[in-house]
Amino acid sequence: MERKYAVAGGALLAAGVLVGAIYTFLPGGLTLLHRGAEHDLVDAGAIPPSRTDAPRVLVLALDGVDRKLIYPMIHNGELPELGRLLGGDAPKLPHARFDESILSTLPSSTLAAWATVFTGTPPAVHGVAGNEYFVRKERRLAAPAPVSILDPSPVTLTYSDGYANELLSVPTIYQQLRERDPSANAWVSMSQFHAGAEKLLFASAPVILGAVAGALKGALDVDRSMQKTPYAALDNEVVDNVIEALRESPQAPRLLTVYLTGTDYVAHGSEGGPDENRKRFLTEVTDPAVGRLRAALEKADRGAPRWTVVVSDHGHTEVLHDERHALSTEDADDPPAVVRAAGYRLRPFTLETKPDADFQAVMAYGGALAYVYVADRSTCAAPGSVCDFSKPARYREDIVPLAQAFFDASDSGKAAPSMKDSLDLVLVRTAQPEGKQPFQVYLGNGKSEPLEATLQRIPHARYVRFAERLRELTVGPNGDHAGDIVLLARNGNEDDVQRRFYFASLYRSWHGSPSKSDSEISFIVAHPEQDTAQIDRRVRAICGERMQQQDVGNLAVDLVSPRAR
Description:
With about 575 residues, the chain is of the alpha+beta class. About 35% of the residues lie in helices and about 15% in strands.
């Protein structure tokens, strides 16, 4: 989960003032506070009782934990409680299958990735194209995890009013499960996508907002105990509230999703790179919490076996916490300067605008990449007129001039000197209708070529299945949510951290790119009564030979309520 909002210009707000402001002004903030740690989404009396021998599944969703980081820790015995949850003691884990091929969706960002997991569909289908993106038909910025704007309200609204759920164009896995088996109840803890679940569990508002405010303060104090960080308070309370709900319920849920975010917060704010502090957090905070959860589930399940699925959303790439490498929202020497210098009226970096707001271009940030949306400027040539974004932009007249401006900014620093050498690729949508054609690589002077040709001509060894994942983002019923121009920063493809850039305010780690470090996610399936070979056959029967991130949600549904084969 990304830091929930960015601070334009690197300004910092005091944590206490911020939390107080959230309670006072945010829609949903007080609702969240009054609801406490549990909210029934569906009347439990409407759910038929399940058989006592019905299959059960735990989905443990770990934010920002790539397999290169966590797999060795499990096998080396550094996470003993997680090992026991997976049915063994390191190095022997005979009841678990560790996947070595699965990748995050593109962008490798929190909201796009979890929407993919919890709907079983890619971004061009479910519609959540990133942590923030523009919905052309509605002239609306969707920002379930704001990056470029100072507005945390979507965070509280996600838990109090289902803000993130409403962005989806397809049913969640919980809705799919209820359709397949009405007796298969599901609980969700902290996940942004929970429509169709019986119960939503979350930490209290002060703890949630304390973690958000802590992320604003910049560097993590790495000398202190991880248990004393606000991120530990968040994850511990999440697990403790699940344990309390299990104690009080006469029947454990068939599908339980527990989402832990602390590792991602730590990575974004840690000095000295993301890996060491994520390891510390996993060891000091996550593993003990998993142990408490495991013990509570064993008691609640009364000896019935339960599948465990451990999955993450993305990895991390270290970046420099300075103005030079943070491509922020400052006009003078950052991407907005390029848009304005090219003659486009840019949408302000706010969550909401007035219905008659005058803008011809929109930018949405996402760490390693940014989306640019362009209007058909013939509908709003005069200043003060309202652009019709429901019409596709014209390629030569509207898209190419702005793509060229960004190409020049990266090539020579034109209009924004700090952007020189900041972009790896400028991608453009060259044909209409939107959502039906893949993006191509912009080469300058109005020329472009297929991404596959660029990758053959200029190998990007650190990028994995890039063209395939780009299609899953941009070709489909909601492919237009990825904009008309995609800017890919030099980030996860660079060995030298001095050459890495990112679209956000000041951070110490980011993700979003098609690189291995951002994309190689964790995916482990375990069952206490099956061996690795049996589990592997079951996973392949459901998901096929090559796993994709959307297969995780489909697998969870099928494990809870198997289809006849």
